[in-house]
Specification:
single chain; alpha/beta; Purple Acid Phosphatase, chain A, domain 2; 5-stranded mixed β-sheet; 4-stranded mixed β-sheet; 5 helices; Metallo-depent_PP-like; Phosphoesterase
Length: about 190
């Protein structure tokens, strides 16, 4: 059975991201190889991966070779560095600026969970007052996590350079102290 994964901000081929984000790699080749390895350790060929932007900063030819080594069906949410990725558009199931993903999940009241996917962090998003999740990238772990908000940075810099499964995302959201804004307090 296929699984759903989320990730962001790989910056394949971008040597300066090692310094900017203090990544523990000696060079861009080592970084790319470890990112590919960690992706494929978790993602199987039949799985779906929602990548929330900034796939790579290299030539489209080099990026295409990397993308062809990654398992899964990849859906891309545009980040602010997608020129090369857009040249490799045939490797992606689709490329969009924003997406609302509905996942069937009987643990939720309506039997499904809505997840808003966007490269950038938002303070409010569609149906956030109903418990909709929001996943974002871009910040490379520099934004403080809000324990009262059902959102977090899905970028690789925050998750030991691995994508996270839907189950892992849900487990993180369960640790949050979010309360519906319209919930009446017991008196």
């Amino acid at each position: 059975m296929s699984k759903i994964f989320f990730t962001s901000d790989h910056h394949f081929g971008h040597k300066n991201i090692i310094k900017f984000s203090e990544r523990p790699f000696k060079d861009v080749h080592e970084m790319d190889e470890i990112l590919i390895q960690r992706w494929n350790e978790k993602v199987n060929p039949e799985d779906e991966v929602y990548h929330l932007g900034d796939v790579g900063l290299s030539s489209s030819g080099k990026l295409r070779k990397i993308l062809d080594r990654l398992n899964g069906k990849i859906y891309l949410i545009n980040g602010n560095h997608e020129k090369s990725a857009q040249s490799c558009h045939s490797r992606f199931e689709w490329i969009k600026d924003y997406y609302e993903l509905t996942i069937k999940d009987d643990e939720f009241e309506r039997g499904e969970q809505l997840i808003v996917l966007f490269h950038y962090a938002m303070r409010e998003w569609n149906a956030s007052h109903w418990g909709t999740y929001h996943l974002y990238g871009h910040s490379h772990g520099t934004l403080s996590d809000d324990p009262t908000s059902l959102s977090f940075d899905i970028g690789v810099d925050c998750h030991n350079f691995y994508p996270l499964s839907y189950e892992e995302v849900k487990a993180i959201m369960k640790t949050k102290s979010w309360k519906p804004p319209f919930e009446k307090e017991n008196r």
